[in-house]
């Protein structure tokens, strides 16, 4: 079945292909149905690259999203974890954004309040630069351990006299001895291919401590399907969750889901869980069933096709009219946007507020990452905003720099 009627960039396919042999990593079902392919994308989005030639020669891999029609899990069936290198050169933090910091603070406050997280031991798996574990420890007078190979000691956010320690490594069975009252794992599970195995590792580490709270946060893939958000599909994210598929995975791994809700303008799923008590699970109203998800995946051919056509036409037309167009936000979304559409020189550069990224280059497309201040020398006419949640913040930054430019948030094609 091919629902696609749009013009696609080279290397992109929206045809469905049934019964691809790939065992579902979340439920073990023997096949998945492919529905979106991009032939060549960079295997990393957030590694700092100092040289344009090196950036343009960056290693690539294949994206082939497939749906498990048994549990609703979506993954990149062509993902090869050997291509991944998370290190101190991995620059993923969003903590330079006041909007993001407000969200993270609010999340901490809500969790501390809901679960009385005071004087507790916190373990954060995939803590990045450590901002969240430092914050929840400071706000609730807790002690914490952060585990992440991309942690950088020189940028310790918890200050001296800290109650937080860090381990620069991947979490695995090796760390099962780290006892905690609360286990957090935010924006990490979507980077892990063997999802059920990973959650079972955590469940086994918890053992008989049955009041251990786990808190997970991942992007919501239903939004991606609804918006045709091809910029949210990239190699680093091998696993894609919806509220229903995430809750089903947790139950399969031996947990009872406690809370399940959307946050950050409905972009993220937050799930809290306890080890399973053996009672009948209580389903959340947010959990969609697999039939609904199949419909949403079917709709992606249309929404994604429209989004690809809209952005190709919008940028090409503006460039031909002599407009200077830049992207704002140099994370994975920008990399996916540029390496799906291949707009080359039509995008002048990519802006980011994170000073660690300035002067670096995006993988494969080779675009330079510049500071907002650098726009004063070469003012843009249009700015494609890679996450609309930051539009107000960007307007304020532009105003302070005395710049005026039209903002084009990526979702603007949905209503077009
Ligand atoms: Zn499955």
Task: Describe the overall structure.
The protein has 416 residues and is an alpha/beta fold. 27% of the residues lie in helices and 22% in strands. Among the domains are: 182 residues, Vaccinia Virus protein VP39 (Rossmann fold), CATH 3.40.50.150; 95 residues, Rossmann fold (3-Layer(aba) Sandwich). The protein is built from nine helices and 18 strands. The strands form three sheets. It has a seven-stranded mixed beta sheet with strand order 8-7-6-9-10-13-12, with helices on both faces. Strands 1, 2, 3, 4, 5 and 11 form a six-stranded antiparallel beta sheet that branches. The longest helix is centred in the C-terminal third of the chain and has 31 residues. The radius of gyration is 21 Å and the shape is globular. The N terminus is likely disordered. Bound molecules: zinc ion. The site of zinc ion has 8 residues, from loops.
């Amino acid at each position: 079945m091919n629902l696609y009627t749009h013009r696609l960039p080279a290397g992109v396919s929206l045809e469905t292909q049934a019964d691809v042999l790939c065992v579902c990593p979340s439920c073990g079902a023997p096949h998945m149905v492919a529905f979106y392919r991009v032939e060549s994308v960079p295997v990393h989005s957030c590694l700092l690259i100092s040289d344009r030639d090196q950036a343009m020669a960056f290693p690539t891999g294949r994206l082939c999203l497939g749906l498990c029609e048994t549990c609703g899990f979506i993954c990149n069936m062509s993902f090869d974890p050997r291509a991944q290198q998370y290190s101190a050169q991995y620059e993923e933090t969003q903590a330079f954004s006041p909007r993001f910091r407000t969200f993270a603070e609010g999340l901490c406050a809500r969790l501390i309040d809901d679960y009385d997280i005071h004087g507790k031991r916190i373990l954060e798996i995939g803590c990045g630069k450590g901002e969240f574990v430092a914050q929840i420890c400071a706000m609730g007078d807790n002690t914490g351990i952060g585990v992440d190979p991309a942690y950088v000691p020189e940028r310790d956010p918890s200050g001296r006299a800290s109650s937080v320690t860090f381990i620069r490594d991947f979490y695995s069975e090796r760390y099962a001895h780290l006892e905690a009252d609360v286990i957090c794992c935010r924006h990490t599970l979507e980077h892990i291919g063997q999802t059920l195995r990973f959650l079972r590792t955590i469940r086994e580490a918890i053992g008989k401590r049955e009041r251990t709270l786990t808190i997970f946060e991942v992007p919501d893939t239903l939004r991606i399907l609804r918006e045709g958000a091809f910029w949210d599909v990239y190699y680093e994210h091998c696993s894609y969750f919806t509220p229903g598929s995430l809750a089903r995975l947790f139950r399969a791994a031996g947990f009872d889901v406690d809370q399940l809700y959307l946050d950050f303008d409905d972009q993220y799923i937050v799930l809290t869980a306890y080890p399973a008590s053996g009672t009948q699970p209580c389903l959340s109203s947010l959990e969609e069933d697999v039939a609904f998800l199949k419909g949403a995946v079917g709709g992606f051919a249309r929404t994604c096709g429209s989004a690809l056509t809209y952005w190709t036409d919008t940028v090409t037309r503006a460039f031909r009219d002599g407009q200077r167009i830049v992207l704002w936000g140099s994370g994975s979304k920008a990399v996916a946007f540029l390496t799906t559409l291949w707009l080359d020189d039509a995008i002048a550069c990519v802006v980011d507020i994170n000073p660690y990224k300035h002067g670096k280059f995006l993988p494969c497309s080779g675009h330079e990452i510049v500071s907002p201040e650098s726009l004063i020398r070469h003012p843009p006419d249009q700015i494609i905003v890679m996450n609309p949640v930051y539009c107000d913040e960007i307007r304020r930054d532009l105003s302070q720099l005395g710049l005026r430019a039209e903002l084009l948030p990526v979702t603007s094609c949905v209503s077009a």
